[in-house]
Amino acid sequence: MTATTTPEATFGVLPRADGSARYSHAGYTVTGSVNGPIEAQRREEHAYEAHVDVVVRPAAGHGGTRERHLESVLQSSLAQIILVKSFPRSLIQIVLQVENSPENDYVNTKLVQASLNFGIMPALMQTAVLALLSAGVPMRATATGTAVAIMHQDGAKQTMVDPSPRDIEKARSVHVLAFTSQDELLLAESEGDFTVKEWDLVYETARGICCRSRPQAKEGMAMLLDDESTGGPDMRQFLRSTMESKVAADLHWK
Amino acid sequence: MSNDRPLVLPGETIDLSLIPSHPKNPLRLGPGLRHIPPSDIVPTAAGELITNPVKNSMWVEYNSNRYIPSQNDIILAQILRSTSDFYLCSLAPHTPPATLPHLAFEGATKKTRPVLLPGQLVYARVSLANAHMDPELECVHASTGKADGLGPITGTGCIFDVSLGFARRLLMARPAQDGGLAVLEMLGGEEGGGMAFETAVGRNGRVWVGSASARTVVVVGRALQETDRGRLGVEGQRRLVKKLVREMS
Q: Between 20 and 30 A from B228 (CA), which of A38, A178, B171, B176?
């Protein structure tokens, strides 16, 4: 399976949902739908804020402990960027259906102890954000995410952006980071053995991918940063250009 | 995308030069923007930032499907049931019901109040929209006591769902000039063979089409929905109207 290097997204793939998006990057394809704010069931109702409900459906079979864990991680991150306080007693439902993953890693999962599936987390995160934007759910900020692995090859350390499942198996440690559009760290999950120094390196790499400044606003320091090749796609520019084409299509009559 | 209507994403900072300033009028913020005291104005939705220096207002123009009630919106509501003092109405699927007091109709008193059955449609204004309370509707102007076209919808017709941006375009004072929307004029004009119908457009993405002939209702409703989903321009609308009229006759 060939992994795509540039992320791709389409909007409005599910016409009945309030908002939907299909996102594919690094071999993963995820379709997400967002409905809300809608009436929450009694047990999910919060008196002062909206309940964000994330459902992750794997490419094959039923979701298990792994999916529940992914959901809880995504739920706490997304509740930070959605303006939940504006919609008390309501529900914002996000369903993420994995359509394609680079390797059929749902084989033999029953035998393995539940652990995070790091490769897919940035794709799920990005799909959720795009679907939320498509639904017009009021948000505090947008978010971009990426996965970084640290490999040890011939005694030298190497960071690897968007690792494949095979790379994750070989990697010493794997990290998933997401940043809001205000350059704040939104999500940081790590697995494996690593030092604080290594984590700092991962942080800088992920920050370079997620928080690259906009081309028209580049001056001085930003220019210098731009010169170093961080590798990997510029996620913020991707988000902006996809939204630009979506808004232009929606407002074609202007 | 032109420079005076820039794209904004949630949480982005708005260039100060874009914010209109007027010596007397207060700044009015429309949908898609929020004010964080003391002086930050931050977008909450992705869309084009529109500013009006004359009215000293600004808002984010975007399209969506889920209606969030806001005060003074004109909406089409469906009666769900009646309680002792008010009707419970639905504005959008899966949302908490809105309340419509029995006395919020033109000329209604405790003795003479309109009797509405579940399923009936009312054209109403949102009189109260608050995050912590269910929305409240009225079919009468609170100060003048006149209905101004609001009230229960009578006559044979059918309701059609469209996107919120499309409903807003239909509600414009001059949809053909400002919204690029001439489909209704065409259906009633020579392209549509002079069909006779009436419409009521709700800001909540619902359009009621009424006519004595069921054929006309279906043609008009389909024309509206296909214009919305196909994002048709004026020329596309003309072709669509001609095609529908040919198919249905």
A: A38
**Angle CA(A73)–CA(A48)–CA(B96) in degrees, nearest 5?**
100
Look up tokens 């306080």; give the residue.
Answer: A85
A98 CA to chain B: closest CA distance, Å? Answer: 24
C-alpha span between B76 and B93 (Å, rounded)? 13
Token pair of A191 as six digits: 């697995």
Q: Which residues of B touch A210 (CB under 8 A)?
A: none
Question: Do the Cβ atoms of A89 and B96 come within 8 Å?
Answer: yes
CATH fit for domain B157-248, picks 3.30.930.10, 3.40.50.2000, 3.30.390.50, 3.30.1370.10: 3.30.1370.10
Q: What distance in Å separates residue B175's CA from the closest CA in chain A?
A: 10
- Beta-carbon separation of A254 and B95 below 8 A: no
Output the pLDDT for position B118. 96
Distance from the Cα of B168 to chain A's closest Cα (Å) equals 12
Cβ distance of B11 and A135 shorter than 8 Å: no
Cβ of B10 within 8 Å of Cβ of A88? The answer is no
CA distances from A72 to A3, A80, A84, B248 (A): 27, 13, 16, 52
For CATH 3.30.1370.10, list the domain ranges present in chain B: 157-248
Per-residue pLDDT tens digits for A89-112: 999 999 999 998 876 555 554 444
Cα–Cα dist B102/A32, whole Å: 42
> Per residue in A185-223, pLDDT tens?
999 999 999 999 999 999 999 999 898 865 544 444 444
| B-chain residues near A182 (CB < 8 A) | 11
Pairing verdict, β B40-43 and A143-153: unpaired
CATH 2.40.50.140 segments of chain B:
74-152
- Residues of B at the A interface (Cβ-Cβ below 8 Å)? 1, 5, 7, 9-12, 32, 34, 42, 44-48, 61-66, 68, 93-96, 131-132, 165, 169, 179-181, 229, 231, 233
Q: Specify the fold of B7-61.
A: OB fold (Dihydrolipoamide Acetyltransferase, E2P) (2.40.50)
Give the domain B74-152 fold.
OB fold (Dihydrolipoamide Acetyltransferase, E2P) (2.40.50)
